Structures are given as C-alpha cells and as structure tokens.
Amino acid sequence: MKILGVTVLLVVSASILLLQTLGRTTPPRMKSKMQTLSILQAATVWAIGRDYEFPSEATWVGDLIDAGLLYEEPTTSYGADVEPVYYYMRPTPAQYQAMLDTGGSEIVVVYEHAELWRGDGGHVGYLDGRVEWIDGSAYRRLVESLLEGGGG
C-alpha cells in the first residue's frame, strides 16, 4: 500500500511539474527537466522496494535500467556536448526517512553538468521530489559545493 501511495504521489508531482513548466521553459530545457525528474523518480521507486537503499553512485544507471525504471542511459545532451550529463548522489535511508517525517528536503539527488546550458544554470532534483532550475552563478556555486562534498 505504501508503494502505491508513493507511486501516485510521484505521478501527481510529475503532472503538476509538467503543467507548471509548459509555456515557461524552452522545449530542450523542459525535456531536460523531465529527464531529471525521471531519474529522480526511478531512483526513489528503486529505493522504496529495497528498504530505502538507493542505488549506488557507481552503478545507478545500470541498476535503474535493469529494474526497468529507465529506458536507456540518460546521456542525451540538450545543451552543450558534455559528459556525463547527469550526476547522481546517493541518499541514505536515514535521509529519506527524515524527508518523509518533515515533508521536505534540500538533499540533492541528481543534477546536471554545470556546462550543459553553457553557464545559464541547471536543473536540480531534490530528495523530496522537486526539480528546480537554478540560474547561472548560483548553480555554479551549488555544483562546486556538491563536488567539494564528493557529489560527482
């Protein structure tokens, strides 16, 4: 029952996100935002079936593809030609439980390469299911802080 509730929540969140982005985002950025959301949701569904143990940072793409949660490796670049396009940070079960308890989280799970949009910013997927666009220098600072902490 818990998995069904979380799945419904993820589908509703994705629908709301899609409606919010229509008309405000260029098609490539909207597609990229949806790809970021897909990775975030796939990792969350994967973890729910495994006592909130998220895929490892070393094998996340293969784990999600093998589980049928991602169709292909998310390497399509919509902006600059960079690789990898997405970086994944493995949350702990305790972080996930804390997010459930509080209803929000600033823990980054997935983010785009800093040069994907040529310095204009990037999408960030948070543990609570949000995907946000962060502009220019603020995005660069976020990515630098994540890299300093071992996130990518």
Quick recap of the structure?
By secondary structure, the chain is α+β, with helices and mostly antiparallel strands.
Number of helices: 5
Q: How would you spell out the order of helices and strands?
A: HHHEHEEEH
DSSP summary, beta strand count: 4
Q: What amount of the residues lies in strands?
A: 5-15%
- How far do the termini sit from each other? 34 Å
As a percent range, the share of helical residues equals: 40-55%
The value of Rg in angstroms is 15 Å
What's the domain count? 1
Q: Please state how the strands of the largest beta sheet are arranged side by side.
A: 1-2-3-4
> Which runs of at least 5 residues are low in confidence (pLDDT < 50)?
none
Average pLDDT across residues?
Answer: 82
Estimated structural class: alpha+beta
> What does the largest sheet look like?
4 strands, antiparallel
Q: How would you describe the oligomerization state of the chains in this entry?
A: single chain
The shape is globular
Explain this structure to me?
A hairpin with an 8-residue loop joins β2 and β3. 47% of the residues lie in helices and 12% in strands. It is globular, with a radius of gyration of 15 Å. The protein is α+β, with helices and mostly antiparallel strands. It has one domain (2-148).
